[in-house]
Amino acid sequence: MGSAAAPRLTTHDKAYYADEKLVNFVRPGLVFKITGADIAGDGTVTARFKVTDPNGVGLDRLGMTTPGAISISFLIAAIPAGETQYRSYITRQRTDAASGRTATQATGENTGTFTMAGDGEYTYKFANKAPANIDRAATHVIGVYGSRNLTDFDMGTSRDDDVFLFVPNGSPVTATRDVVRTETCNKCHDPLSAHGGNRRSVELCVICHQPQTSDAVTGNTVDFKVMIHRIHTSKNLPSVVAGGKYRIGNTDFSDIGFPAYPDTRNCEVCHDQSSSAAQKTAYLKPSRAACGSCHDNVDFATGKNHIDQALTSDNQCATCHAPQGELEFDASVKGAHTIARFSRDLPGVVFEILDVTGATAGGKPTVTFSVKDKKGNPLDAAKMDQLRLYVNGPTTDYYGIPPAEDVRNASARGDGVYAWTLTNALPASAKGTFAAGIQGYKNVTLLPGKQKEQVARDIGLNKVKYFSVDGSPVVARRKVVDIAKCNVCHVSLQMHGGSRNQTEFCSLCHNPGGFTTGANQAGIALSQFIHRIHTGEDLSYDFIFGNTNFREEVKYPGDRRNCDKCHVNDSEQLPLPETNRDVQNPGGYVSPLGPATAACTGCHTAIQTTSHALGATTSLGESCSVCHGPSADFSVNRAHAR
Question: In degrees, to the nearest 5, what angle opens at C-alpha 593 toward C-alphas 589 and 597?
């Protein structure tokens, strides 16, 4: 064991910081792999599987010859002929004491017989047998899930699961349940986990979460397609908007909002058409269960809220709800879920800032820019519904909110090119590199003259241009996050009516000197503001911005210890650049705060944390990096390791 290859570890793994010899001995991690299965004539089910570390070296499930005992449980189900979802061979009855309601639930087992067959190789004979009327031509699935306890070595608990599809008569597998893949969920959930954390893949979840299983407490089905739609739509469910609740067991999901813009009409956020899921287009086939999960005020039995059209089966759904129609916003699946902002009929708004000339300290430079549609045709700036320029600097660290300049009356230079001389002069003390940013949109009428006529904002992506005010080399603002990372969850991050949509542009206002006025003052520097928003329900105090209390509104779906989820270029590491300025923090315990203190207390909001940081701050600045620098005992990576 001492010569075994070291596990694949990164600076974000707790084991990375452990003694190398201990890591080589423990070999943290857990990987299950089911290699085969069969069902005997008497219904006895046997699975063959491996238990290894991430390098493929076998582990002892009992923890006798390798560190860490391993808990293992199994599931088994089949897809009955003519059906599309699993039906479990193992079920249990659960009765809720309060309501007296009894529910049938698919479940697993771990009381069968384990037999070691080699190094990390085992067979498992199920305690439960397959039914006597088993269809041996049907697709069957065996799932395994479990955990490896390494807490004695300060390496936490490793978890994994796996599934294996087979047909008992030896035929190839043709029928599958493969609609959404785990990697799609993990774009936000980082990682997906449930029931204590051992069940980590959609492929495993759907074995039990199918129409066979319901919740005894509420009577709600936990069929995956229904439950997941309702959880992700919860806040906007018609029943919840009307004052009801959506619960599973004792968990209330009624305040869950969907992070993707603007809501769950964006089906392909989860039904990812770039994934390798075999049935990724399944969402285009309507059914009462799937559609009624979001539209839960529809009564298909009576036709209420369904244009008075009652349905007794799913056979006629596709008659009206084809996958896609000729027009957007029609009754087709794609049409009914069309988001006006993403309409294919929008001509598009495309900005470019071409040049900034005459930039001097105290001067009023001229900004040359273009406004065109997505085909390259020029747009009339005067007919834009919003068109603004913002200028701020220096890029070493912006400070304060710059005035907006309405540039719809800019001088036309032809072919969609315009020039605007700023009305607000640059500071007399201006030095180094400044930045000009543009935002705007044009209102466009979609389906004019038709009953579904509506107005949509055709919004351009922000563009930023850097320029020198003193002849020194142009230095762009450091890149801390990437909008592409924001859009992994948010899809199309859009704020302030949608026209501010690029993080490079956001920082022009959301900087250390910016804060809101009024009763609920708050600093708006991205370093603190975004951390606080995403900390949400885990904040130690209310964080109110405008009319939104983010402590009540936000439940982060991932793990905030994963700084790389948002940050780029190791920008979360200390020390921060010396040019970073103190951050205004009205409404907080202390204002202003040092740049590192502001960033860290965005998540770590307890008053003790702020006090600790202030104790490491003098008139000379912050000394946070002494303990939290990259090679320190409490480095950012080490403190956030998982």
Answer: 95
Q: Which CATH architecture has domain 350-506?
A: Sandwich (2.60)
Structure tokens at 166: 């087979």
CB 39 within 8 A of CB 140: yes
Contact 128, 236 (CB under 8 A): no
Tokens read off for 339: 């988001």
User: Do residues 622 and 560 make contact, with C-beta atoms less than 8 angstroms apart?
Assistant: no
Of 632, 634, 478, nearest in space to 567 by CA: 478
DSSP string of 129-146, one letter each residue: PPPTT--TTS-EEEEEEE
Strands 31-39 and 113-118: unpaired
1-175, CATH topology level: Immunoglobulin-like (2.60.40)
The kind and range of the H/E element at 45 are strand 45-52
SS3 content of the chain, % helix, strand, coil (to 5): 20, 25, 55
Q: What is the pLDDT of residues 276-299, one digit of tens each?
A: 999 999 999 999 999 999 999 999
Find the mean pLDDT for residues 355-361: 98
For residue 563, which phi and psi values (nearest 5 degrees)? -60, -30
Q: DSSP of 471-522, one letter per residue? A: SSPP-PPP--B-HHHHHHHHSS--BGGGTB--HHHHTTTSSTT-B--SSS--
**Spatial distance between the Cα atoms of 103 and 212, rounded to a whole number of angstroms:** 10
Residues 392, 511 contacting (CB under 8 angstroms): yes
Handedness of CA 163, 164, 168, 172 (dihedral sign): positive
User: Cβ of 448: how many Cβ atoms within 10 Å?
Assistant: 9
Question: Beta strand 366-372 with 386-392: parallel, antiparallel or unpaired?
Answer: unpaired
Buried b (16+ CB within 10 A) or exposed e, 72-91: bbbbbbbbeeeeebbbbbbe
Q: Do residues 267 and 283 lie in contact, with contact meaning Cβ atoms separated by under 8 Å?
A: yes
pLDDT tens-digit series, residues 551-601: 999 999 999 999 999 999 999 999 999 999 999 998 889 999 999 999 999
pLDDT at residue 3, as a whole number: 44
Residue partners of 638: CB distance under 8 A and separation at least 6: 11, 17, 632
Domain map of the chain by residue range? 1-175, 350-506, 526-639
What does the block give as tokens for 433? 């590199």
Which residue, among 431, 526, 439, has the nearest Cα to 481 in the 3D structure? 526
pTM (2 decimals)?
0.93
Which phi-psi region, left, alpha or beta, contains residue 372 (left: φ > 0; alpha: ψ -120 to 50)?
Answer: beta
Tens digits of residue pLDDT in 506-531: 999 999 999 888 778 889 999 999 99
Among residues 146, 167, 169, which one has the least CA distance to residue 158?
Answer: 146
Report whether 434 contacts 353 (CB < 8 A): no
CA-based torsion, 263, 268, 269, 271: positive or negative: positive
Q: Do domains 1-175 and 350-506 have the same CATH topology?
A: yes
- Average per-residue pLDDT for the chain: 95
In 10 A of CB 550, how many CB atoms?
19
**Taking a C-beta distance cutoff of 8 angstroms, is the pair 238, 294 a contact?**
no
Q: Which residues face 458 on adjacent strands?
A: 442
For residues 564 and 363, give the distance between their C-alpha atoms in angstroms, rounded to a whole number: 40
One DSSP character per residue, 404-433 reads PEE-TTPEEEETTEEEEE-SSPPPTT--SE
Q: Which residues contact 484 (CB under 8 A, 6 or more apart)?
A: none
Q: State phi, psi for 565 to the nearest 5 degrees.
A: -60, -30
